[in-house]
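S2.1 Query sequence (BTB domain-containing protein)
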Amino acid sequence: MNSKFHSDLSKDLSLMLNDKEDYNVMIQIGENHNMKEFRVHSNILRARSPYFKSALSAKWTTKRNNNNSVKNNIIEFKKPNIEPNVFEIILKFIYTGEVDLYRQSGEKILGILVASDELLLKKLFDHAQDHLIESQSIWIKQNIVPVLRTVFKIPNCGKLQDYCLESICANPQSLITSKDFPSLDKDILYNLLERDDLNIEEIDAWNCLIKWGIEQIPELGSKNNDETEWSEDDYEALKETISQFVPLIRFVGISPADFYDKVRPYKAVIPSHIYEEVTKFYYKKALPKTTILLPRYEKTQIESKLIKPKLAEIIASWIERKDDKNLSKNYQFDLLYRSNRDGTSYKSFRLKCKGQGPCLGLIKMKNKKKIYGCYNARNFPYHSFDYFSASESFLFCFENNEDKQNMKMNRVKKGYLTSKKGFNFGDIIYMNGRYIYFNNINDDDNVRNILDLDGHQSIRFIPESVEVFKITTT
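Output structure tokens follow.
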């Protein structure tokens, strides 16, 4: 029998961290008044961090005599770009494998993220990134510009970059009204303006671009914002500054009145071929041919309390059997039924949902993050039963309300739809009274896996919530 005593090992190593006598590395963290020396052990640093394994080589460090220590030739190392209070947390992780981010501020966790990336502590880096997303969302929104500026300098931080951009796209007002907006890096601004899901009026996108461009030019920023007083050189400077962004503005989404009042005065900063095509659009309603200026829109819209719109796009892609970025239609998911609002009787469900055509159903168990669902490509029947044989129907599950990595889906080809069980998907998932039943009637391993039956043929539970949506396309 292999016995493990990890807790004792962690405790003993933490004592080494506090041992001021037995060390061979002196690391200076921070600088000036915010500098602190840490006495640590090279073997532990090398074993835990690939960065330190290289950094503690003879080429990266210096040695000095330490008259206050039993040992001479202490290795000296300096890291002025890391805060001492951040490094204390990182050292505890290196020595013990333990870290508690719930007691730390968002700013400090961001510092841990940056430092752990530099020190090649992947597990700590991943943990800090996930914690910021899951537990510091409010702080991120309140500090969105400095957070963006930081995470876009870290190539490995794609998950947090996507989270920040999606948060801004869903509610961009907090960003565009922020005093920090003019200091937004151009790469971040470009990423935002090129997105189809940026939830902003196009004239506001244009105004933001002009505002940002002016602030990048000191001479213009110090002048009156009245463009009628600008010189040709001023216009030329602004044109050069925003030239790469102008093709991202969807001018056809701007009303004629706003175009005349707010865009036309800046005609000199817009490439002539774009301005001519847009003008032609306003006069003749002819869409531009050489520039990508189609309006922004979300291909899916859903008012769900269980999933985010991005998951609705994935469901739409399963319906079309296409990638979610290449949908050929726009999808509208209209709420027909919500158990918390409409009750759980089959009569209430039938009143809301029967005969509505293709529908999406979503289910959430109590005390679980997982979302289960099904797409019924036919109808919930009026009559006693209907044989279910639509090969386009499917069931699925998401690990949480925004899971895009670990979802599962399986198309189900046969079963029965009855009118006496309320919410029903081929008798594989159905509602009877206040209970939801998961039932593997076809003994399908895929169904068992998606519904988490754990070896059972069926289970029943009282759901936290059930939602059903009618699906329409344009």
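DSSP finds 20 helices and 17 strands in the chain. Residues 65-71 have pLDDT under 50 and may be disordered.
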